[in-house]
Amino acid sequence: MIQSQNEMDFDVWMESAGVVEMPYDIKRLGVIVQEPSQVATYPANLPLEVRCESSLPLSHHSHDAVWVASSGSQLAAWVPDLAPERRLLIELNQSTGPWLLANRDLLRPVLEWIVIHQPTHEKLKEAVSSDVRNVREFFEELSLPISLSGLPACLAPGTVLVDGVKRLSTALFDDGRLSVQGLAKRHVKEGYYAKSSRCQDCALNSECEGVHINMIRDQGLASLRPLSSKEALSIRNSRKQGLAKIEYGAQPQPAALSLDGGPPPKTSVIDPLSRMSFKSAKKPNAVK
Question: What is the arithmetic mean of pLDDT over 157-179?
Fold first, then answer.
């Protein structure tokens, strides 16, 4: 998160009341509308990421917009309307998954404008009710070179791996600085990944984050499969995402600018675990 702030590396700013300008050089605004025609209320030159409550067609809307589809009915209405300025981010779930399998022929001509994303969930019950069962079998059946984010290569055969969308909103901040509570909640929902011990034998182990913890809690680790060097080379050559900093970890980051563009703190924040360690080291031994 801090590195993305320092590098101005966010994709979407989620719409918030009272925020006039998007921070950290973000170019695309994330909005929620009831029907597609409401995007006309936003400036024509403003790129959008749109979540829509209806399944009405997208025709006649010329905004540069990425439309987020979360249901089969939205896919049925929107896939025929895709164009370079109207792209689609499909959240893979138990509604969109069956539609994708049943309409593979409709997807082939518009693959360049589509990305599938595997959502993550804060709570186990959300993963149970939403996630597709046996995602590797799903993508084997889909058998399309479609762009995908949110899953490791071993669970997404035949796809082209891409980076997930990096979103930011005021909910993560408190008086312009990142909120510890907000950051922790976001980590549980979006950043809490794990692997199987078998992943140590995978040629992509040092580049792969694994699977979100609630998908593992729901469906287990049995589907994870170590990939050979030959398979890994093919995936590296095809994917459109950066390599994760898994093997050596991310580099320490200086404090980022505040949300309002103000300066960072004058002193660094001490990691809570380090603070506890310092305190323990200063305590006299209880037993002489």
Answer: 89
Query: Residue 183 and residue 186: Cα distance in Å, rounded?
Result: 5
Does position 288 have pLDDT exceeding 50, yes or no?
no
Number of H helices, E strands in the chain: 10, 13
pTM for the model stands at 0.88
Kindly report, residue by residue over 42-99, the tens digit of the pLDDT: 998 999 999 999 999 997 777 899 999 999 999 999 999 898 889 999 999 999 999 9
Contact status, residue 26 vs residue 46, Cβ threshold 8 Å: no
DSSP-derived pairing of the beta strands 12-14 and 167-168: parallel
Which of these, 130, 30, 35, lies nearest to 77 by C-alpha position?
Answer: 35
Q: Give the domain ranges of the chain.
A: 2-238
Half-sphere exposure of 17 (CA within 13 A, CB side): 0
Query: Residue 32: beta bridge partners?
Result: 51
User: Residues 6 or more apart from 221 whose CB is under 8 A from it?
Assistant: 195, 196, 198, 211
Strand partners, 148: 116, 161
Among all chains, which residue has been given the structure tokens 């700013």?
A: 13
Instruction: Tell me the C-alpha distance between 145 and 114, whole Å.
Output: 11
Contact yes or no for 199/108 (Cβ under 8 A): no
Give the integer Cα–Cα distance in Å for 39 and 160: 30
pLDDT > 90: what percent of the chain?
A: 61
How far apart (Å, rounded) are the C-alpha atoms in residues 62 and 37?
10
Mean pLDDT value across the chain? 88
pLDDT in the model for residue 228: 95
- Taking alpha carbons only, the member of 113, 108, 103, 203 closest to residue 153 is 203
